[in-house]
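Design request, tokens follow.
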């Protein structure tokens, strides 16, 4: 099984932690970087090959990870010379990838079964499989519904339930056909194109542990929780 880790971003929202380190290498706990945890999880799940898309401070990632042999994997790299969006780096890699593969952000902490996501993707026949997580938003205001300046409904401090992308995907190489290598391609653009073509992606619903480390508050939470979640995140690794 083959995985692609997207690790080319500048991690602007996580500054100052990412001033000198790429976001996937910020430490979690006393011993581990985020990227190390992800690679150990992928290896344990049975992935044998990983391509890391690097950009900002990418040489530090290359020096840290090397050829992946310490995790029993083969790791190679694709360098992003300019920002290409979430899916753009895959276009330059397309000829190096198998027909189905896993794609994920390099800053995700989760006990998601990556191999199961890929198995479900293959079985579904969908062009794209999106690992999703349930979220609830509490609105602290009374919400009005209006029509022609008239209030037609009112809800006091409602809650909204919805599912979000976890930043982990099963993807088919054929889904990338028709896009131009070297040009940016965002996840949002790809999904909207698939929906417009009535070629719906598949949702892989997950309700375990997931934390997207995008902001300093998320990073502080990850460190605070890591001691109690370590056995869950690194089980079998």
């Amino acid at each position: 099984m083959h995985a692609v880790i997207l690790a080319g971003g500048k991690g602007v929202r996580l500054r100052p932690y990412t001033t000198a380190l790429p976001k996937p290498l910020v430490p979690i706990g006393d011993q581990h970087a985020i990227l190390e945890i992800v690679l150990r999880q992928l290896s344990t799940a049975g992935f044998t090959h990983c391509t890391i898309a690097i950009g900002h401070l990418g040489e530090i990632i290359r020096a840290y990870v090397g050829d992946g042999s310490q995790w029993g994997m083969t790791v190679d790299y694709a360098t992003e010379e300019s920002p290409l969006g979430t899916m753009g780096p895959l276009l330059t890699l397309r000829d190096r990838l198998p027909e189905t593969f896993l794609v994920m952000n390099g800053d995700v902490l989760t006990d998601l079964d990556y191999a199961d996501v890929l198995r479900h993707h293959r079985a579904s026949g969908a062009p794209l499989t999106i690992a999703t997580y349930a979220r609830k938003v509490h609105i602290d205001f009374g919400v009005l519904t209006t029509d022609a300046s008239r209030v037609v409904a009112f809800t006091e401090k409602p809650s909204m339930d919805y599912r979000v992308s976890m930043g982990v995907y099963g993807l088919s190489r054929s889904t990338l056909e028709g896009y131009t290598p070297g040009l940016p391609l965002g996840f949002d653009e790809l999904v909207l194109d698939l929906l417009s073509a009535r070629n719906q992606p598949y949702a892989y619903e997950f309700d375990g542990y997931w934390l997207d480390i995008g902001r300093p508050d998320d990073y502080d939470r990850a460190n605070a929780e890591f001691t109690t979640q370590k056995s869950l995140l690194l089980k079998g690794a």
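Comment from the thread starter after seeing the answer: thanks! Residues 29 and 224 are 8 Å apart (CA to CA).
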